[in-house]
Design goal:
This protein is of the alpha/beta class and about 325 residues long. The protein has one domain: Vaccinia Virus protein VP39 (Rossmann fold, 3-Layer(aba) Sandwich), CATH 3.40.50.150. About 25% of the residues lie in helices and about 20% in strands. It has 9 helices and 9 strands. The protein has helices at about 45-60, 75-80, 110-115, 130-140, 180-190, 200-205, 250-260, 280-285, 310-315; strands at about 1-5, 10-15, 100-105, 120-125, 145-150, 165-170, 190-200, 260-265, 290-300. The chain has a 7-stranded mixed beta sheet with strand order 5-4-3-6-7-9-8, sandwiched between helices. The chain has a two-stranded antiparallel sheet with strand order 1-2. β3, α3 (about 110-115) and β4 (about 120-125) form a beta-alpha-beta unit. It starts with a strand and ends with a helix.
Length: about 325
């Protein structure tokens, strides 16, 4: 079965139950952000570059492009426990029947596990190769997934308030401007719905990957230039061949709030290890935590104590 959607001037072909959605790379809609300053690549050029980079990374089988292990499917809800500790659950106790958007989350892990836990899952990713991993796992395990190829900041094919939960693994660093992605997420999450995201710490992206001659991890790159970080050697901290951008905490945390969310919790996953070798990932993490996670709730639900969401945020 095939349905044809028209979005602006684009034709979107969808195959159900697993969907090849809006292809923003082959037929990109005109940018609504205007022309970039001289010397800064356009948004569409950056998206195309990063899509090709992730296609290569997926073909190379990097850790972030490896599907979930078999034992994770024995108890998927436990694997998806969420929260940084046992004192607070970040996800609902049951995911059965919930509409879950796994955003910029191809790779055969998040989407299939949420589907195995009973959720109705949509996976969005920029990379066709990363989505192919989800398709393979879903077919192998007889799971229903809706797969949509588009940028994380272009969710116009989804209606307002469609999703109960949005799960957004590390990926905000691949966009030069995060304001639009947070507003798009706010539009597609129902009032009272939750948004769980993980981001690369700005200080970690600014710092050198190895200690300097002083023995310290020093800040080398400024925030807010609009330019991608210089290329560096492959590591757990940087994905080879991608364009990555440093976003301030104000842009990330403030942007989430400005889009219509209330932040309920923030954590920094612990990647340290006793006795870690100097210069190793774990050693660096003790000085510069690489990631932080955010639990946010969409304003406007019955539990909202801060008043109504501004009308401009709810526009569709």
């Amino acid at each position: 079965m095939r349905r044809e959607w028209r979005w602006g001037s684009d034709v979107v072909f969808m195959v159900v139950p697993m969907v090849e959605g809006m292809n923003t790379l082959q037929k990109a809609a005109p940018s609504r952000m205007g022309s970039p300053p001289e010397g800064i690549a356009s948004r569409d050029a950056i998206l195309a570059h990063n899509a090709r980079a992730w296609d290569r990374l997926a073909a190379g089988g990097v850790p972030l492009a490896r599907p979930a292990a078999d034992d994770a499917f024995d108890d998927p809800r436990r694997w998806l426990a969420g929260g940084p500790s046992g004192d607070r659950a970040w996800l609902p106790e049951s995911l059965v029947g919930l509409e879950v958007l796994c955003l910029a989350a191809g790779g055969g892990k998040h989407g299939p596990l949420y589907a195995a836990a009973g959720a109705r899952v949509t996976v969005v990713d920029l990379s066709a190769a990363m989505l192919a991993l989800d398709r393979h796992v879903a077919s192998e395990r007889r799971l229903d997934l809706e797969l949509v190829r588009t940028s994380m900041d272009d969710l116009g094919m989804f209606g307002c308030g469609r999703f109960d939960v949005v799960v957004h693994p590390v990926s905000s660093c691949y966009l030069p401007d995060v304001r639009r992605v947070f507003h798009e997420i706010a539009r597609v999450v129902r009032p009272g719905g939750i948004y769980v995201s993980q981001h690369k710490s700005p200080a970690s992206l600014q710092a050198g990957l190895a200690p300097a001659s002083t023995g310290r991890y020093e800040l080398e790159h400024p925030q807010g230039t609009g330019l991608p970080l210089p290329a560096t050697q492959p590591s757990r901290l940087r994905e080879q061949g991608t364009h990555e951008f440093v976003h301030s905490l104000a842009a990330l945390l403030g942007g989430i709030c400005a889009a219509g969310f209330v932040i309920e919790d923030v954590s920094e996953p612990d990647h340290t290890a006793p006795g870690a070798a100097v210069g190793s990932f774990a050693h660096r993490a003790a000085f510069v935590p690489p990631y932080f996670r955010v639990l946010a709730r969409r304003r406007g639900g019955s539990s909202d104590t801060l008043g109504a969401v501004p009308r401009r945020i709810l526009s569709c």
